[in-house]
Specification:
heterodimer, A: 173 residues, mainly alpha, 0% strand, globular, B: mainly alpha, two-stranded antiparallel ribbon, 2 strands
Chain lengths: 173, 393
């Protein structure tokens, strides 16, 4: 019985983590691969893999960080598999995405597409830094844990990424 | 608000729609259902059971469903009737698809799973033997039984390995030892059927059983090796296993004494010899226990139990099948038994100093008293009977 309850609670904790972080993990993927459907799949896969680790006996202390780590690795694999310019093509060929029932999506309007295009112009490592620091709201320490790099390296990269992004934004201001 | 902040806030505003969110959540729930958390090494049966029949039921409902099916199993209905069915019978699918899945699902620990799966593997062998006895074993049926047998055997092995990997070498050794004795008994039976009938299919199955026996033996020896090497066995574990062997030998002794009137002379000699060997091994186990060599005591007790279980399984199967294999008198015993077969020779040759003959009469008039009992405790194990053969020390 205790076993069963422990299992039930593990499941409910996991589903709770889905409710709380699904959007964030999805955004994290979306702003890296620039393909909404693919981003959904990567997010889905990140959750499944994380559950697989739980079932496999992995003791996960911080599920949010763990999800980010899995998602980040999936994204990196995804980017590696693609040709460098492919992502941009995906976005351009698709044009404006069709409307959704209850949410204004970025790719649906011109302004949103412009922002995505700006982000896409960044070098992948700077894009990663911007997305994790400002969109995901992760601190340098958390980012370092997720990417397996040092905190100072992350801080430097965020600073540089910010500079690059401002340079890209300025002409639009 | 500068552009940067505005852009970031726009980026943060992006998310899943309600439909997308719900859709992925449903996918995840299915995934969780198919890969439940604390139960590792899920057998294919558990997997199917959860996905098909019990998905979305709360734990309580699930428990109720299991209890209901158990009641059906115990009390009657198709599910009970199906228990006796054989391949080709209308109810046989119920036995395999419903009853046995429930049995497999109810077993939660690796320990319980190993023993359940061993029982299910044995069922396939019994079915094959029965069909062979009725000359109904054809190639298709044999192939099905064989693959089902193999699947259950693999589950036994998997769970035993899990026990061994989790430093539960004693439990691993016990589970593999039990399975091994069952397999040896059936290899024995199948070998005899094979030599006494013209059913060709038995030969193939026998080979499979021998392979599984060898695999199981390897797993057991590995677990026992760890027990001896680690010295991890506690006094309680060793004592428990000695007691368990004592009870088993006592039980088999009683069984043999019950059927002794029907036994052929040769079978009676074999029974007495095996029981004596089991008792001797038990005495050795007891001595190791007294010497505080708990690992060795554990291993020897397992061996004693194995001999007794194998004897019991062989005799019970032959009695059940009513085959003309020379064990029981009422069968026209023209058939010559070919010794104990390869399966038990290892145990015999590795036995303790005493010879099999002991005090037994090889003429075939071995008497084993009805009140035969085995006593454990004190300085040694004593098997006593009134009159007739004394199986003992």
């Amino acid at each position: 019985m205790a076993r069963e309850q422990a299992k039930e609670s593990m499941e409910s904790l996991f589903l709770e983590a889905y409710k709380n972080y699904a959007d964030a993990i999805f955004r994290h993927c979306y702003y890296r691969v620039f393909d909404r459907e693919r981003a959904k799949e990567l997010m889905h896969e990140a959750y499944e893999r994380t559950w697989g680790e739980i079932v496999g006996g992995e003791d996960i202390k911080n599920i949010r960080a763990y999800l980010y780590r899995v998602a980040n690795n999936l994204v990196i694999d995804e980017i590696r598999k693609r040709r460098p310019t492919e992502a941009l093509h995906v976005l351009q060929e698709k044009g404006l995405e069709p409307g959704h029932d209850d949410r204004e999506t970025l790719a649906r309007n011109i302004e949103g597409k412009k922002i995505l295009a700006l982000l896409e112009q960044l070098e992948p490592e700077y894009r990663e830094a911007i997305v994790m620091r400002y969109v995901d709201d992760l601190g340098p320490k958390e980012i370092a844990e997720i990417t397996g790099e040092s905190e100072s390296a992350i801080s430097v990269r965020i600073h540089r990424a910010l500079g690059h992004l401002r340079n890209l934004i300025e002409p639009h201001e | 608000m500068n552009k940067f902040d505005e852009y970031i806030s726009r980026l943060k505003g992006e998310g899943l729609t309600r439909g997308e969110r719900a859709h992925i959540e449903a996918g995840l729930r299915l995934f969780i259902e198919a890969n439940p958390a604390p139960v590792r090494n899920i057998s294919p049966f558990r997997h199917i059971l959860r996905q098909r029949s019990f998905a979305n039921l709360s734990f309580i409902l699930r428990a109720m469903a299991i209890i209901l099916i158990l009641v059906l199993l115990a009390g009657g209905g198709a599910s009970y009737a199906a228990e006796q069915s054989l391949p080709g019978d209308v109810l046989y699918p119920v036995k395999i698809e419903v009853n046995e899945r429930v049995l497999a699902a109810v077993a939660l620990s690796a320990d319980a799973k190993a023993s359940t799966e061993a029982g299910l593997a044995e069922r396939r062998l019994k079915e094959a033997e029965q069909l062979a006895a009725e000359a109904k074993l054809n190639a298709d049926v044999r192939a099905n039984l064989e693959s089902n047998f193999e699947a259950h055997s693999n589950e036994v092995e998997k769970n035993v390995k899990e026990l061994d990997d989790n430093d539960k070498s004693e439990a691993a050794a016990e589970a593999s030892s039990n399975f091994e004795s069952i397999l040896r008994a059936h290899a024995d039976i199948l070998a005899q059927i094979n030599s006494s009938t013209t059913v060709g299919e038995i030969q193939a199955l026998l080979l499979k059983v021998r392979t599984e026996t060898d695999d199981t033996e390897k797993v057991r020896i590995h677990a026992e090796g760890r027990i001896s090497a680690n010295g991890s066995s506690t006094e309680a574990e060793a004592k428990g296993n000695v007691e368990s062997a004592t009870n088993k030998i006592s039980e088999v002794t009683n069984y043999i004494s019950k059927v002794k009137a029907e036994l052929s002379g040769e079978a009676a000699v074999r029974a007495a010899a095996d029981l004596k060997l089991a008792s001797d091994t038990l005495v050795a186990a007891k001595a190791k226990l007294d010497a505080k060599a708990y690992g060795e005591a554990f291993v020897l007790a397992s061996k004693a139990k194995r001999i007794a279980v194998q004897l019991e399984s062989t005799f019970e199967s032959e009695s059940f099948l009513k085959l003309d294999l020379g064990i029981f008198k009422n069968a026209s015993s023209s058939h010559e038994r070919e010794g104990d077969g390869a399966s038990s020779s290892e145990d015999h040759s590795a036995s303790s100093s005493k010879d099999h003959e002991g005090g037994d009469d090889k003429s075939g008039s071995v008497e084993i008293d009805g009140r035969t009992g085995v006593q454990g405790g004190g300085g040694g194990i004593k098997v006593e009977g009134e009159g007739g053969a004394k199986i003992g020390i």
